[in-house]
């Protein structure tokens, strides 16, 4: 006899403004409990030190969490100069201290930042969640094991120096997925000759959502205490998929897609992932493949729809 999943069916995305000091999974489990939801997941963890945009997916929206992970991100970070830590942030043990550059200024830091704009090669931190043989790197790091990590290409679309103080600098970064800001700050410190680590990190963009879209957890708790419904805070799954082109399907082709069958269109459409709709609703994600004069639309991730 199968066991029914505990909790109610909740579908949609909730964007949280994650507070510092808590894990992303801890926030997820707390919010899931506030909703009484059966199924939920997040779209890329933030370190406990970090704050900012954390989209949480419920129910049908969890089908698209991997696609949301592929999206660009943006951050504001503060780096402390002259101090290197084991983890690359202020939560780690100090392993080295160096004097600051005598000519430290906006101009001197700006001169270094030029080497980090555009596509760069970055070595992931040992304290990242990147996996090696099924285990996250941070587990090896905590055991004192160093794993060789090949550099990976990432792109920094924007890297703006916001401020330089006595021993700190602030930067704004817009980048591709997989960019490690702690590694970036460490590398900037190395380029300046004094080392650096992250003391504050705020994510300002993820899955197309910005801080203005995000709700503090305290607001959810207040609403729950006052008996207000939290469902009104949810947005539809396709709100996080606007990076993909939209295609509205005619009834005959829609039936085929809903039955899991690919369809061909003579009109050329964008190649790759594509959002699928009927006249009124989001149906899911398909994949468009170029076949010369036609494209083949194959269903990939479909939502349950009520007739």
Assess the beta-strand content as a share of residues.
35-45%
Contiguous low-pLDDT stretches (5 residues minimum) are none
- Count of all domains: 3
Pattern of helices and strands: EHEEHEEEHEEEHEEHEEEHEHEEEE
CATH architecture of the largest domain: 2-Layer Sandwich
Name given to the CATH homologous superfamily of the largest domain = Pseudouridine synthase
Number of strands: 19
| Total number of helices | 7
Helix content: 10-25%
Kindly state the mean pLDDT as a whole number? 91
Oligomer: single chain
CATH class assignment of the largest domain: Alpha Beta
> What's the end-to-end separation, in Å?
29 Å
Q: What Rg, in angstroms, do the CA atoms define?
A: 22 Å
Computed structural class? alpha+beta
Shape: globular
Could you list some keywords that capture this structure?
single chain; 307 residues; alpha+beta; Pseudouridine synthase; Archaeosine Trna-guanine Transglycosylase, Chain: A, domain 4; 3 domains; ten-stranded mixed beta sheet; five-stranded mixed beta sheet
